[in-house]
Amino acid sequence: MQNTDNKEFFTSQGLKNTKSRNLIYEILEQSDVPVTAEQVYLKLKESDFKINLSTVYRILEIFVNKGIALKSNIADSNKSMFELNRMEHKHHIVCIKCKKMFSIEGCPFDEIEKKIQSKLDFDVTGHKLEIFGYCKDCKLIKK
Amino acid sequence: MQNTDNKEFFTSQGLKNTKSRNLIYEILEQSDVPVTAEQVYLKLKESDFKINLSTVYRILEIFVNKGIALKSNIADSNKSMFELNRMEHKHHIVCIKCKKMFSIEGCPFDEIEKKIQSKLDFDVTGHKLEIFGYCKDCKLIKK
DNA sequence: GTAACTGCAAACCTTTTGCAGCTTG
DNA sequence: CAAGCTGCAAAAGGTTTGCAGTTAC
């Protein structure tokens, strides 16, 4: 089985070009909010691609180690979430009640990072911002 | 066994004033970075206070529900971290390598929140900012 | 052909839960 | 005394791992 979609991309990272990786990469690419390993797994299953959950975890882990994806634990569940490490640099806003996430544009942090860099003698490589509250639908029925 | 340290505080929240709660509250109070349930548990053990890990979890959960503490998953481990919900509103900076956390002063977000509030019709109740990179000690030996 | 990848099942680790006994107000 | 806490042990998630078989290069 072969899929050449991202062949160069994967091999340039020292990774074999497998269908699983291509599909998982695509799923991350198509989502503009972070997803759990299980969500990825279910999406693959829906599209009738047979895969094991532990393979999903392994691929996501590789993506994270290679810097292709980012891992986080937004929303304070006990699940990890994964998203593509996009250059455009997105942040998210999470509804406390329904846990839906929305992406927000813009990031006012670049200059603040520089300040911290010099002040703390800390080599800043990135940041993560999560804003939370109640979304349009949930704000009426908070409890 | 009794300890009146925070008696009024607890009873005003509808909570019984127990030694465990007082001690856990103190531990959170004395730490300026988030801690795991296990760290709290070990600290109590060190000081020869016998307690069960599940009790620690239960107390921390109550604190979170009452708004006394905040739960997060900074540093992308699979462990939850807890910190006091201080009014001063602190953020943290985490070293990717040694995972040490430092607290940083100030938060430039209040006005940005307002913008989002009106733009997305989202009722913002708070935010969490994590900045990461390499600390002074680790920046020399990154890998 | 070989190194890398995957499936499966079991192990692991963190967190939660049921229940019985104990404490606080 | 009653309601609320706690300890203990067991269960319940989520994630990782060992191993054997398969695939990409």
Protein model, in words:
2 copies of one chain form a homodimer. With 143 residues, chain A is an alpha+beta fold. Chain A has 2 domains: 1-87, Arc Repressor Mutant, subunit A, CATH 1.10.10.10; 88-143, Dna Ligase, domain 1 (2-Layer Sandwich), CATH 3.30.1490. Chain A has 5 helices and 6 strands. Chain A has helices at 7-12, 19-30, 37-46, 53-65, 110-120; strands spanning 35-36, 69-72, 81-84, 91-95, 101-104, 123-134. A 3-stranded antiparallel β-sheet of chain A has the order 1-3-2. In chain A, strands 5-4-6 form a 3-stranded mixed β-sheet, with helices on one face. In chain A, strand 4 and strand 5 form a beta hairpin. In chain A, helix 3 packs across helix 4 (53-65). Chain A is globular and about 45 Å long. Chain A starts with 6 loop residues before the first helix and ends in a 9-residue tail after the last strand. The model of chain A has no long low-confidence stretch (mean pLDDT 81). Chains A and B meet through helix 5 and strand 6 of A and helix 5 and strand 6 of B. Strand 6 of chain A pairs antiparallel with strand 6 of chain B.
Task: Walk me through the topology.
2 copies of one chain form a homodimer.
Chain A (H helix, E strand, L loop, with lengths): L6 H6 L6 H12 L4 E2 H10 L6 H13 L3 E4 L8 E4 L6 E5 L5 E4 L5 H11 L2 E12 L9
Parallel strand pairs in A: 4-6
Antiparallel strand pairs in A: 1-3, 2-3, 4-5
Chain A binds a DNA duplex (25 and 25 nucleotides) through helix 4.
